[in-house]
Amino acid sequence: MRRGLLVLVVLLWCIPSWGGDYSLKSLEIKDDLSLTMKEVDFSGSRYNISLDLFSEETDPSGLYWKLGEIETVFETKEVSTAKDLPYGPKARQKLDIYYPTVGSNNRVILFIPGGAWRQGDKSSYDEMGTTFVKYYGFTVAVINYTLYDSASGEPVYPDNIEDVSSAFAWVKKNISRYGGDPNKVFLFGQSAGAHLVSLFATNSKYLPAGYSFSDIAGVVAMSGSYEISDMVKYPNNPLGLDEEEVLMYKKIVFDAFGTYNNESVLDDGSPQEHITSSLPYFLVLFAEDDMPGFAQEALNFVSAIRGVFPNEPERAELHFISRADISEEAWKVGEDMASQEEVMSDYPGHYAEVATINQNEYNGKVTRTIADFINNH
């Protein structure tokens, strides 16, 4: 009798608060009288809502509940894959596609991996691709591209950005075979990948023939460099970098661009130098314990974009990924990856920010922030 009364009280309390049309699949009542309303369908979205019993000192015999967790319920998709598809004639011009087995007109993520323009492989992003397909219904393409080869010593720029251009053209022409909407292709890159997607979406000379910036639905840039020359200036570094940090970046930049002091080359490869009023929307992220200078790089880049769009601050969203936004498991992955290179050991956040996009954290803050940006544009 008491439990039946509980159900009635809870439903009577909730219905006036929500209003509108809704449905409730089930109501779970635990031994401690805490409640969970399962799969509450409200305005087209579904939630699990918990109510926790608590005692009120002024009315010890009464029954009181407070709102607990509200969890979005996802309708998962079956994931199919197509691996090692060529988007060009070069050995590394290959991509993997993750897509819902059933469905069409999905939003598309074209993901460009990081690795300081010298390492990284699409095979490392299976968990990320699966997560965005299974829980959000996106179609995801992850590419390999030309990397710096120490044996040849040749700079990798602009071959790497030209690979991104080729991959974009391939995706626009072919992604509908995998349920993707070619009119909703978003670019997402991390680290060196963030630099490349941002450069592609700002420097029009790398757009494939027949395309414009309006063909890019949006850009997610996670922990990248946007003004290359700022990474290598010393003394009085504009990012606050010390001598050791600048020396580290000089080596990386020289390998990628063939120079660290030719301003014209570095400016050509710097997204911040090419901001115009025709840009797509940007989501720019950086992390706690990220690479040195990357926080200021993100702030400067967003500020520069907003300077061109003074009445549209949403044109460039800025998001800080704190340690609290990442699970212990994902942070441990970041620490393990950072420890593989002594010079990187102090920057686990730079790796953990990607590791946190996984099936256990499908509704985590980082994953959700990216997914919401994509769904809202």
Describe the structure.
With 377 residues, this protein is of the alpha/beta class. It folds into two domains: 2-72; 79-375, Rossmann fold, CATH 3.40.50.1820. It has ten helices and twelve strands. It has helices at residues 2-18, 126-136, 159-174, 192-200, 243-257, 263-268, 294-308, 328-338, 349-355, 365-375, and strands at 22-29, 35-42, 45-54, 64-72, 79-86, 94-100, 106-112, 139-143, 180-190, 218-222, 282-287, 316-321. Strands 5-6-8-7-9-10-11-12 form an eight-stranded mixed beta sheet, sandwiched between helices. Strand 1 and strand 2 (35-42) form a beta hairpin. Helix 3 (159-174) packs across helix 4 (192-200) and helix 8 (328-338) packs across helix 9. The protein is globular, with a radius of gyration of 24 Å. The protein starts with a helix and ends with a helix. Mean pLDDT is 92; it is low at 1-9 and 15-19.
